[in-house]
Each structure stands twice: as structure tokens, then as C-alpha cells.
Amino acid sequence: MEPSTVTGHSKERPGQPVTTTTKPGNDQFNRPECRDGHCLQATIIVDDDDSKVWSLYDAGPKSIRCPIILFPPVSGTAEVFFQQVLALTGWGYRVISLQYPVYWDLMEFCDGFRKLLDHLQLDKVHLFGASLGGFLAQKFAECTHKSPRVHSLILCNSFSDTSIFNQTWTANSFWLMPAFMLKKIVLGNFAKGPVDPKMADAIDFMVDRLESLNQRELASRLTLNCQNSYVEPHKIKDVAVTIIDVFDQSALSLEAKEEMYKLYPNARRAHLKTGGNFPYLCRSAEVNLYIQIHLRQFHGTRYAAISPSMVSAEELEVKESQLSADQDSDNDQ
User: Less crowded by CB within 10 Å, the N or C end of the chain?
Assistant: First the structure.
């Protein structure tokens, strides 16, 4: 189930040329739909600290300048979104799935991600974030609100205030804890008891991904997840938002979900009957559909994440008429 190699690999440094080599493989990322979409695996350093390495998969048409970028949860790596990368790329979207470097502070993370977007020559992007990934996506949108870099957000099983975990008092001590203790903390939020086969596979896969993270990676993510912080919604009120959540057991409380609804009263809501903590793995078809529905509102605009050739003429015509009507409405006011 775990993808380990892709069609290309590069290591980039700012100001240096990119080196790409082709690697054979029969993993999930080496399917024809990903190969045809030019799926590139890259490790990129944008900070002065050489240890801060962004790892990512960049799939789909590189002519798209407003792709959707996927942020993983605490336990995740760039590989956890392989179902989304393969499906969305097959439909003509440009998708970037990434893994964060070690950042201990939210502002430091936001500054690093802004540099990454500059390096990739991306002005504005759509962000999909799962759990911690969703919180980081909101904080980045908030941090860059004066010069917006986020056009829309899809928040999956996410939260807006770290105090819901009741661990803000321990956030500054995670760096001292050994890896096995950090993993035990994360595993404590995984589903317990009987689950269906797809959810069991998803949990096994995420446990494997968790095992691949070292002590500093885990400690820094838990620090970001638990240090005292909350989203200021008035700073991102113009960002289109879709909230994806599940009705069965997950690490998020009902109160946390209700708080998200209050924070984004105009957001689209996508509810999954089941899916646990990792619906993007075990309910990937439904999640991919919700992502597609969210991104469809931008078809025919400069912020489309899809190649124009993959959008039906009828859909483009409808979108153009909607834009024309909106412009007429603005002119009348």
C-alpha cells in the first residue's frame, strides 16, 4: 500500500539548477495516470538552515499556477495523499503533496512555506489540510492576509484552536521526550476497537508513516499542534472554505467541530458518515469528489487548479456566464 518511489527525483537549492533522474518502480505513484502527469518527487531547501528540507510530490500540468497543495496530519508524510494525487491528476489537476521540515514555531512555519511558494513560483494556491495540516493552512492564510497567498481552503477533520487538546502546558516540553513516548501520544488518538477493512488498512498505513518520522519531526509537529494559538477568522473572511468531517469516531470532539462551523458560517460542509481520522485514505472516492466540487467553482478563472483542456466546454460556458452575471451585478451597485 505504501508508495516509496516516483517517476522523478530532484533535490533543489535556491539559485541552483534542478537535477532530475528517472527511477523505475511499481508503487502507487508509478501508475500511468501519474507518469503521464509528470509526477516529480523533490526535496527543497528554502531556509538558511540546511536541515530544513521540504519533501514533496508535484503531479499534473506544470502550466497550472494555482495548484492544490496537501498538508498532512501530525502522523503523516507526503505519501498519505497518494489517493488524491493519483485521482486528481487523472482529472487534469495539478496537485502537490508535501511533508514539512522541522519547525518549532507557527510564524517560522508560515515564513518557510511562503519561501517555498516563492521558490516554486506560485502566487496563490488552494490548500487541503488534514487535522494539524488544516490548522497550519488556516494560520498561513491568516499570516499572509495582507498579501494573500491562499485562494481557498479545504479543512478535513481540522480545528481552529489548539486549546481543544488541553496540552498547551506541555507544548514546550515535547522536544525533551524520546521518540517512543511521542509516538505513544499520537497513537492514543487512533481509533480503537473494531473497524471496517478499509479503515484498518488506513490505520496500518498511518502507523507505518508514523514510524518513519524521527524524534525531532514528531516533537516539532506536536509542538505546533499544541502550543497556545487560535485562528483569527476576520483575517481570512474572503477565502472560500469547505469543511470535511466525519460522523463516526475521530480525534476531534463534537465541540471542536461546532467551533469550526461557527468560525466559517458561509463554508460548504461535506459530511462523511464514516471515515475515522483518515477519510482521505479509507473513503478516498468521497473525499476526492468533495475536493473536485470545491475546486469546480474556480474553473475558467486564473485560479483554476485544472488544465483548461480537461474542463468540458459546457462547464466553461456556464462558468463564464456566472462571471459575466457577477460583473454586471458589481457594475449595478
Answer: C
63 - beta bridge partners? none
- Tell whether the torsion through CA atoms of 294, 291, 286 and 253 is positive or negative: negative
How far CA 326 is from CA of 16, 31, 321, 332, in Å, comes to 44, 41, 9, 10
Q: Is the separation of the CB atoms in 281 and 72 below 8 Å?
A: no
Distances (CA, A) of 184 to 62, 163, 228: 40, 20, 22
Q: What is the pLDDT of residue 326?
A: 54
Domains, the chain, in order of start with CATH, read 8-162+230-332 (3.40.50.1820)
68 and 95 Cβ atoms separated by less than 8 Å: yes
CA–CA separation, 217 and 73 (whole Å): 12
Give residue 48's identity as a one-letter amino acid code.
D
- For the chain (length 333 residues), average pLDDT per consecutive 10? 38 42 40 57 92 96 96 96 96 96 97 97 97 97 96 96 82 93 91 85 95 97 94 94 90 85 95 92 96 95 92 65 57 51
The residue behind cell 516509496 is 4
Q: What do you get for the CA distance between the two ends of the chain, in Å?
A: 55
**Cα of 324 vs its chain's centroid, Å:** 32
State how far the Cα of 311 lies from the Cα of 307, in Å rounded to an integer: 7
pLDDT of residue 331: 53
Give 44: exposed, middle or buried? Use CB within 10 Å, 0-12, 13-18, 19+. buried
How many residues are present in the chain?
Answer: 333
